[in-house]
Design goal:
Elements (H helix, E strand, L loop, with lengths): L20 H19 L4 H7 L19 H5 L7 H52 L2 H17 L22 H22 L1
Helix pairs in contact: 1-4, 2-4, 4-5
Amino acid sequence: MFIGVGARSSGGTTPVGRPDKATRAAIAQRRADAIDLRLAGVDWHTVARKLAADPAVNSDRIAYPQGYGIDRYNKGLEPPADDQLINAACKDVRQALRQRTTEVEDKADELRAVENLRLDRLFFVAYRQAVKDGDLPAIDRALRIMERRARMNGLDKPNKTELVTPAATGSELTDIALDELEALIGISEEAAHGSAD
């Protein structure tokens, strides 16, 4: 999981702009290691020290590649203070989680696009048959495909639900309303028994 090197590196970044490919890979590994340590229940201080570039503060006494404080270490300066190391570890984990979330969302968007293409093909067949032949099952199928697409893409408006509570002083239900309710219950029971026979 952890890769150590015994000597100081030459810096690992290009003079201007983004870090080179090897540096980016080492930073990605450091972030993955930070997440793994946190998932294992390791406290922030230990994570920060384990992933520090300077062997003097690194808990494993090795120079972690592209570890926290790498610029100071490469220049021969004092290592960062513990609170700076901890802040760097926290920032790493937040950034790695944000990146993973973005990747998952991107993959979901790609899958949604593929599913929309599949629904387009199915809809075309059902729609053509429904319009050309007036086929009622094809109409139902086309409507179901349209409903699926609307749900998947969030096109449906949310249903408004209104909660009604009886007044605190008494019930709003009258004897007539109770009679109507009992009649409706009786009708639904008869329909249920009739369809079961």
